[in-house]
Amino acid sequence: MVPLAPPKRVCILVLGMHRSGTSAITRVLSLLGAALPHHLINATPTNEAGHWEPARLVQINDSMLTEFSSRWDDWRALDPATLDAAKLEHYKSAIKEAIAAEFGDASLFVIKDPRICRFAPFYESILAEMGVATRFVLIHRNPLSVLASLDRRDQICANYGALVWLRHVLDAETSTRSKDRVLVSYEQLMDDWSSVVNEIATALGINWPVGDHASELIDQHLRRSLQHHAALPADFIPKSLVGGAVRETYQSLLALPHPESVESALVVLDRAKAALDAGAPVFADALFEEMAVRQQRETLNREHLERLAAKRQDEMEALARKIEGNDARIASLEELCRQSDLNRAAVMATREAGLLRELQELRGTVTELETRINQEREFLQRLTADNDKVNAQITRENVELQDQVRALSQARDIARFEEQQVRDILQAIYVSTSWRMTRPIRALKKKTAEFRSVATGALHLIRERRLTPATIARGVRRLPRLISEGKLSNPTSFSELTETLEAQSVSRIQSAFDREFYLRNNPDIAASGVDALSHFLAHGWKEHRDPSADFSVSYYLQRYPDIARAGINPFIHYVLHGQAEKRTALSYKRRLGRSGIRPKVTAIIPNYNHARFLEQRLESILSQTYENIDIFILDDCSQDKSREIIQRYCDLYPGRVRSLFNVQNSGNVFRQWRKGIEQSEGDIIWICESDDFCEPDFVERLIPHLRDRSVNLAFGRIQFCDQNGRPRAGLDQYREGAEAGIWNESMVRPASEWFTHGFGVNNLIANVGGCLWRRQILPAAVWAEAESFSVLGDWFLYCHLAGGGNVAYEPNSVAYFRQHGRNTSVSAFKSAHYYTEHHRLMLLLRKTWDVPDETVERFVSKVEFQYKHFELEQKLGPLSLHVDRHALLKVKRQRPHIMLAFLGFHTGGGELFPINLANELHAQGHLVSMLALDMSNINQHMMESLNPAIAVYDADQVVEAGADRFVAEAGVSLIHSHMALLEIFFFEHMKFTASIPYVVSLHGSYESADLSVDFLKRFAKDVTHWVYTADRNLEPFRAVSIPETKLTKLGNGMPRDDMPFPQTRREMGIADDAVVFTLVARGILRKGWRASISAFIKLRDRHPERQLHLLLCGDGEQAANHQRTYGSEPGITFLGYQSRIPGLYRISDVALVPSRFGGESFPLCIIQAMQTGTPVISTRVGEIEHMVAPHGHPPCGLIIDPVRDTDHFIQLLETAMEDMMSDTLRQKYAKSAKKLGERYSISSVAEDYMRIYNDSIRSLDLNSNEAEDGLQSERTAYR
């Protein structure tokens, strides 16, 4: 058959007899992309996988059948055209309206209702009027299976069921001849669904909108466990079924797909239909047989009801007799109560007399106590008098001490005067012969720390006027003692500080030290009058007293054991060295607490007919103590007063409360969630069910957890309440049953820990309003699967939202889950899909995390308890049909958790690349997180470029837990490092030994790290695989043997960025015809800042006839220094850090990358320039030449040599820039740049990395298995 060209809109009409697989094929078509109606018939115990029928159309079809005095199981022929014109038009309009409402403007949709077999041409004509092409899928199944199913479900006898089957299949076949149709065998669909859907696509000219990722869902749907009657096409159909008509018809249907049999098959089908329409005697016999069976069934039912009524009458009489007996017992008990009251009165009188006696005794005791109190009062008065005498003595002594203080102050002033005299004398010494004699010592002071100490000792002797050759020798001998006392690095006074350090360093320490903070937090020091800085230098840091709010002594010494072991003053080290080394001064928790970040929260309220609860819901949000919240209400066509309430609040709170009123009911709550999230404006999402509420501080208590970028999801203590809002018990025990003993304290744990323990047993977030999560855009496939859940969709979504990050629990954050009889989750426990969804949910968890078998067993036991509690086995069959414990236990983890480790959110390619890689890995559906070594300094633009769904852990969290434990609890499958400091952190500081792959990408950090060979050897042994971008990356490893199998050369990639630059040329004052050169680089040495500026100035001065401009983009020390010098230079613009580099290149003419940086390998800015079609001038460093001028491809720019002579280098750069002034040359290079830019797709790079990850994981698993096998062999041999 020649494939058909697809029209703009297509409807697939699924035709077939009831119980013939119409539901199965309809669901398969929907999973492939054909739209389903918004409102579906609910699943039933006899069709637990779902009917997938449009509820409105089924109702209309039943009404049409009623017009003919017919119903679904009537075998008589009917023709809609026989209705009068008014009724026919009524049904036509109703069907049109229903199709428009249920399917909207879907380009491909599927309609299924077996009743349509009776009037398929009527539907086809309606769809044609709506501009929709009709394609028919006729599904048939062995009639033996159909009849057995009808007998079980509807108690229809076989012959009558055969009549109904004939009517449906013959009407459907006859009415669709010579039309676009395909016949499908149910048995073939179950055996090989992929070939069936391919046949449908080819025959009907349909390209399925959904790709291969639907396969798993289709496999789950077409479960053999749902096929209760399984006759095969070859199974014999008895001729006794309505005279053999069923057998002949079914055989003809099987023959139709074969061209050589079509003609004879159609003859048989026409004959069978003519006999059926004529009401042949054999068909009438079947009708009377069914009528007899139904009459007998009614007789049996009536007799059963009569017996049941008699039984109930006997039970009522027995109850009446029981009530009479109870009345007698009640009278007897009342008499006993009366006697008891009399006895109680006598007992009370006796007790009263005893109490009076006790009262008299107590009064005597009180009198004795009053006497003792008077005696104690006299004693206290004597003590007071003695105290007054002592106070007087103290006052006298205080006066004497003040006199002493004044004397000491005078002595201090005298000492200062004498000190000034010494300074004057010292100044005189500076010009003396003795001072000139010590000049060599002072020269040595500038070279090394040891000689500096010698000079300090010598200067001390000069002050004592005892500088002679002998005293110089004595000063040298003092050096070991100075070192041993730590005075070289740990000055114990301000004077030693000034002697030991340069003036600039002393000034930096003084500026960083917060005197007021130190005295405020150490009142004992403030009271003593001691100088704050001097005390800190001498004692404070050893006592772990902090010098400012920005530095923690305890943390720094614990975080950096090298500093602790050296005995160095940690504060001085941090100020002078640690900051530059990217060391952190405060713990991650303290930094978060001080950050003051108050992210915006969007409260999304999906509402449907909850007017009576809606105001309380809104007020509970508006009264939150955390104020940075906006509210978005989505009403799903409520029919109560909801919309009036919503509009009132929108009017009361304009700008804070907004709404969206659906025109048609969405049919699924997750569609509302998705709509709300995708239109939200907040950083944090809060889904607030319209019938629930919470405490006023609910959000305030959760937000601190979400300041941590490793936390993706945070939830509080969720409690039941009744329909009037009164708290009810139940959920505390529910949580305790999931995981015992953890629910009274705040807790932050990785998602892996949660889902392999308590969250893998129960849905700990029993109500979505009890949690907040970081706003993220979930893939469409995830939302589609969530919509297929009826009860556990939120649990399913929590797994995806948590991702590879942390989940926080805060018990003091309380939300209420209202129980009012209409909750979806309350009413679904008795349905088959509720249990099937449990199987699907655990399947997801097992594939995502290493969920232990014990958790699976507890999970299944919980479901098993519910199943037995509701006594569902008789109704739904064994639980194993829905939750297969053995199948779940066989499932192994399939999603590795990739952790990308990098320096942090700093500017630079080595930081930008892992961010882009993480984004792309996440977009491809992989589980990914990041580990930042330094989160103390964050570039917000870099942070915002990372997908918020990707969790970012701080190195402190690794230190706190220990690396091995951290990796195990976070479920990390592989670490991918992007900087040498990470290897030092993991393998040296953290002693990392976990058995997971460790992959390193070399971006140039090893070239500048100057690590010892011992370090490199240890890293070479511990690292699983090395990825390098340029051959020069391997230079540091020349002395180390790394096997070729552990090395991969792989280029970088960048995502395409079409965002414009925030400013235009005109706004920056640049002429349209100017040639604009742009440098994008970090502001560090040898990145080309000086060379670019110098070359540009020379070029500009030599060509006054041309408009030239230089844009300088980047931040750092060199950028700041050059801006101070050249900031006012004509034609030069300093832009600072910018995030939209491609947009900047689009308004530029030439990209300058004149780098001579030692670690330069594969610059990302060159990729961005090529992707935007911008010519490049760069250097022959790293892989740059192969990027700009690859073999076999026209170059996209000019390459110059990175000569060491800076003046020569500037001349080379100026010449290249002058060449680029040619419009023709730039156009040639721009054309080539665009083509080369296509090579550097980040998606391809991510796929290459995933291959490396998977190979590394498989290799490690294989080695582990071999090691285990070897160990087992040794054990066997030993035995």
Strand content: 5-15%
Structural class: alpha/beta
- End-to-end separation in angstroms reads 70 Å
* Average pLDDT for all residues: 86
Annotated CATH architecture of one domain: Alpha-Beta Complex
Structural features, described:
This protein has 1279 residues and is α/β, with parallel strands linked by helices. Among the domains are: 10-240, Rossmann fold, CATH 3.40.50; 594-828, Spore Coat Polysaccharide Biosynthesis Protein SpsA, Chain A (Alpha-Beta Complex); 897-1049, Rossmann fold (3-Layer(aba) Sandwich); 1075-1240, 3-Layer(aba) Sandwich (Rossmann fold). It has 53 helices and 27 strands. The strands form 4 sheets. Strands 5, 6, 7, 8, 9, 10, 11, 12, 13 and 14 form a 10-stranded mixed sheet that branches. Strands 17-16-15-18-19-20-21 form a 7-stranded parallel sheet, with helices on both faces. The protein is flat, with a radius of gyration of 42 Å. The model is unreliable at 429-488 and 1274-1279 (pLDDT under 50).
Keywords:
seven-stranded parallel sheet; 27 strands; Rossmann fold; Spore Coat Polysaccharide Biosynthesis Protein SpsA, Chain A; 53 helices; single chain; alpha/beta; 1279 residues; ten-stranded mixed sheet; disordered C terminus
Helices and strands, with pairings:
Blueprint: E1 10-15, H1 22-31, H2 55-67, H3 85-103, E2 108-112, H4 120-129, E3 133-140, H5 143-154, H6 158-175, E4 181-185, H7 186-191, H8 193-204, H9 215-221, H10 245-255, H11 262-278, H12 281-430, H13 433-437, H14 439-445, H15 449-463, H16 469-484, H17 494-500, H18 503-512, H19 515-521, H20 523-528, H21 532-540, H22 553-559, H23 561-566, H24 570-578, H25 588-595, E5 601-607, H26 611-622, E6 629-635, H27 642-652, E7 657-661, H28 669-678, E8 684-687, E9 693-694, H29 698-706, E10 711-721, E11 727-728, H30 731-738, E12 747-750, H31 751-755, E13 771-774, H32 780-787, H33 793-802, E14 806-818, H34 824-827, H35 832-848, H36 853-869, H37 873-876, H38 885-890, E15 897-902, H39 909-923, E16 927-932, H40 940-944, E17 952-954, H41 955-961, H42 963-969, E18 974-977, H43 980-989, E19 998-1002, H44 1005-1009, H45 1013-1022, E20 1025-1028, E21 1047-1049, E22 1075-1080, H46 1089-1102, E23 1108-1113, H47 1117-1126, E24 1132-1136, H48 1141-1146, E25 1150-1153, H49 1164-1171, E26 1176-1179, H50 1184-1188, E27 1197-1200, H51 1206-1219, H52 1223-1237, H53 1242-1278
Parallel strand pairs: 1-2, 1-3, 3-4, 5-6, 5-8, 6-7, 10-14, 15-16, 15-18, 16-17, 18-19, 19-20, 20-21, 22-23, 22-25, 23-24, 25-26, 26-27
Antiparallel strand pairs: 8-13, 9-14, 10-11, 10-13, 12-14
